[in-house]
Amino acid sequence: MKVVIFAAGNQTRFGLSVAEQPKVLFPLKNKQTILSNTLSQLDKCDLENITITVADKENVATYIRNIAASFKTPLIIDEFKPIPFSSYPWRYQKLSPVTFIFGDIYFPNPALINYFETLRKEMANKRAFIGASPIPVGDYHLQTNGHLIANISKEGPGEYFTCGLFTILDDSILDKINKTEKITEIFAQFPGQGLDTGYAVLPKGIIDMDTPDKIDLLKASLASF
User: Which of 77, 114, 145, 218 is surrounded by the fewest CB atoms within 10 Å?
Assistant: First the structure.
């Protein structure tokens, strides 16, 4: 199992420049960042390697080089910058099974560990897998049917929400998927194409750091522990 973390976002809505404060390097407790928190959990998931896309974000690449020795899982820096950004899944399609994680999302411990435990238990006969949140995080609602996702839509209804975490178990599914401008619109197509897609419900507390108000939400969440 391999992982790709998207850490090259332009954060146009965040209110800070990439040079000033990359979202993935937002500080948490005990000198951790959003990125190192994600890596710390993934390091316990028995992964072959973790690739972090940095494009031209040299400050992120330098940070990764400085902390790489702290993890047993090999970290790979990918400076490739595709246009559109959503072309990354096709770039990595020969690595399946491969899990994609949005780097600007805070996953409380042990959310990612739980995801991979559930994935490995239920991945048989599934072609894709998605992380689900019981509270609004991503842009899409999930309707479920047993262990499979029946539908993904922006309007809903649905019991859960997407949360920037999805796995391609069979790269041939990309032959049926339209390329779009947003990564989320790629995995939203899986159930609609009749591609058996499972899901793992993660604990509350996941925060998508997409707007400045999420900073206060994250600080309040950290203060509660």
Answer: 145
Its domain, for residue 9, covers 2-223
Q: Per-residue pLDDT averaged across 130-155, rounded?
A: 93
CATH number where 37 lies = 3.90.550.10
The residue-averaged pLDDT of 171-200 equals: 91
* Residue 124 to residue 114: CA distance in whole angstroms: 17
Q: For 89, phi and psi rounded to 5 degrees? A: -55, -35
- The H-or-E segment that residue 160 falls in is strand 160-168
DSSP sequence for 157-218:
--SEEEEEEEEES-GGGGGGS---SSHHHHHTTTGGGT--EEEEEPPS--EE--STHHHHHH
Whether 136 and 105 have beta carbons less than 8 Å apart is answered as no
pTM above 0.85, yes or no: yes
In this structure, what is the dihedral angle of CA atoms 176, 11, 75, 166, given to the nearest 10 degrees? -30
User: Residue range 77-95: average pLDDT?
Assistant: 88
